[in-house]
Design a protein that fits this description.
The complex is a heterodimer of chains A (277) and B (297). Chain A has 277 residues and is mainly alpha-helical. Chain A is 72% helix and 3% strand. By secondary structure, chain B is mainly α. In chain B, helix 5 runs antiparallel to helix 14. Chain B is elongated. Classes of the chains: A mainly alpha (277), B mainly alpha (297).
Chain lengths: 277, 297
């Protein structure tokens, strides 16, 4: 094989961009999280783990509060997706007429800017009983919008998974006298396992990073009841405080939590043949 | 349940769901046609009061009605015209188009080159480098917000249009998608071109790309949509309103104290419409692409 520089020239530009805006970025972020780092004054000395300690331990830190809200949002989103997108796909599959039309309509929120959706639901939730003004209903309302927005997209994923299930499995089950429920539990669900895990993991990773709806609809309120991690990061780094070091530490803590799901996602990408050897 | 009934029930269920999906859009468009007074008096309605039959009847009977309210003589598109004239929505839309076009063009170009090398060329360290790219893809954007800002600031590009688009050039996911498409092209075609004296550059542009159109269109659409919808990044990196994309421009209206909501809804409709039209024109590529790879807009 002829040794040549050409392949490296092909990959160099994309690599430069990807490396600078992910790996180098991560390095800078790690460095910032270990320093007293103010957006306006700049770096002011090594801080060790002070920023992390402050996030995890100090009374005025909103980290645990925000993590709790984020976790609740994640759970509601994942449950909501399973309870909407999967049944929708099962029903849509049975429809003989207009399937393409339904898919289009259900898909609309996926191609609408999150800001627009948030502005509309800001009013709809007001009309439906001021859901955003009550600290008990605000976060579930945000999750409800997220589930509504993701239902069509995830339905399409489930539909694709459903079409991959060989029809003869159902035929055989029917010959053996299995009813619709038994077919669902013993064929559809097991055969859909990969899609299920994929959808749930992607939903979880996305939900951990919810920001736009919080920013537009509640600004973290009422009484901090919708303050999520990304909003804490944003507030500390950019809005009022300019505390980039502290905010970076919080971002790394978020990454630590999400990493588990990212790891699963990585394995899934391999199994979905997006990435194979 | 009988065999004949099941599809009918399914159809009914899907139709009901479709109403739930479309209702917020109807609300958005309906509200964008209201006058300020109409929106203040009637937040729920889908049809502006001045167009309702009962108000018209009341008016014709000489009773007081919505047609006596200020703005009752407005044409339908009044809020749209005002959103452009006073809210500079045309400027924001133009910026969004520009960001979308630049990010899509550059990212696609970089992805094509890298994907081709990973699919067809042999070089030392290929597997390691590819694995490294895979890693960069998995970092959550929320974690990259602050450091990307610091990088862009170091480059002196905060509050510039280049600062908005620069991080968007990185797109490991596109490399994976295109590489997969390139791998599916029969190698014999390339060998034939090579015999005819074509180099790897010529093969890429004359053989590989024309045969990968669906994948390129899919990736292009997703990249454009992602760029159009981006919010947190431009919010953080920009402070000059002249450079705002539509998403950030909309959030600006929202934070005004006396928000003119019908006008905001008009601007929102104008912000949502281009992508919906694009989607309608090219949905087979999008739906196919999602089913294939679980791509996220």
């Amino acid at each position: 094989m002829k040794k040549s520089l050409a392949p490296y020239l092909y990959i160099a530009p994309a690599f430069a961009a990807a490396l600078v805006f992910s790996l180098v970025s991560m390095g800078i972020s790690l460095w910032a999280s270990l320093h007293h780092f103010d957006a306006f004054a700049g770096a002011a000395g090594y801080a060790g783990l002070d920023n992390y300690r402050r996030a995890l331990g100090e009374a005025d830190s909103h980290f645990w509060l925000a993590l709790g809200h984020t976790a609740l949002y994640v759970v509601l989103s994942a449950a909501g997706v399973l309870l909407t997108a999967l049944p929708l796909a099962l029903v849509c599959q049975r429809v003989r007429w207009g399937q393409a039309l339904f898919r289009t309509l259900y898909f609309l929120p996926s191609i609408t800017p999150g800001v627009v959706l948030a502005l509309v639901f800001y009013h709809l939730f007001g009309v439906w009983g001021n859901l955003l003004d009550d600290r008990r209903t605000a976060l579930p309302a945000l999750a409800l919008m997220g589930v509504w927005a993701g239902a069509g997209y995830n339905m399409v994923l489930f539909l694709a998974g459903l079409t991959e299930i060989p029809q003869h499995l159902y035929d055989a089950a029917r010959v053996d006298g299995a009813g619709p429920w038994q077919q669902f539990w013993h064929i559809t669900l097991p055969m859909l396992r990969n899609t299920l895990v994929f959808v749930v993991v992607m939903t979880i990773i996305g939900a951990f990073q919810v920001f736009t709806s919080v920013y537009i609809m509640t600004s973290g309120g009422p009484e901090r009841s919708t303050e999520v991690i990304t909003y804490t990061i944003f507030l500390n780094a950019f809005a009022v405080a300019g505390q980039m070091g502290y905010a970076s530490a919080v971002a790394w803590l978020l990454f630590g939590v999400v990493a588990v799901f990212v790891f699963i996602q990585m394995r899934l990408f391999r199994s979905r043949k997006v990435y194979d050897e | 349940m009988s065999k004949r009934l099941l599809p009918l029930v399914a159809l009914l269920g899907m139709a009901l769901g479709a109403v739930v999906m479309v209702y917020p859009y109807a609300y958005m468009v309906g509200s964008s046609l209201k006058t300020r007074r109409e929106f203040a008096q009637d937040k729920e309605g889908l049809v502006p009061p001045r167009f309702r039959l009962e108000e018209r009847l009341r008016h014709s009977r000489g009773e007081s009605s919505a047609l006596d309210w200020p703005g009752a003589d407005w044409p339908l598109w009044q809020n749209y015209a005002d959103a452009i004239r006073f809210g500079r929505v045309d400027r924001f839309l133009g910026n969004s188009f520009l960001y979308g076009a630049v990010i899509t063009a550059v990212q696609l170009f970089l992805d094509i080159l890298a994907a081709y090398a990973f699919a067809r060329l042999e070089f030392a360290g290929k597997r390691v480098l590819f694995g490294l790219l895979l890693c960069t893809m998995m970092v959550p954007p929320a974690v990259l917000l602050i450091p990307n800002f610091l990088v862009v600031r170091q480059l002196g590009l905060v509050d510039t249009m280049w600062g908005v688009v620069l991080p968007g050039f990185a797109g490991a996911f596109g490399i994976f998608l295109l590489r997969q498409a390139f791998l599916n092209i029969p190698a014999e075609l390339e060998q034939a071109a090579r015999i005819d004296g074509c180099g790897s550059w010529g093969i890429l542009w004359n053989v590989v790309l024309p045969l990968s159109k669906p994948a390129l269109i899919t990736l292009g659409l997703f990249t454009f949509m992602g760029a159009w919808n981006m919010f947190e990044w431009p919010l953080v990196v920009l402070s000059d309103q002249d450079f705002y994309p539509l998403t950030v421009g909309l959030s600006l209206f929202r934070s005004e104290t006396s928000a003119d909501w019908p006008r905001i809804f008009a601007a929102s409709t104008m912000g949502a419409a281009p992508l919906i039209l694009l989607f309608l024109a090219a949905q087979r590529y999008l739906v196919g692409g999602i089913s294939l790879s679980g791509m996220k807009v």
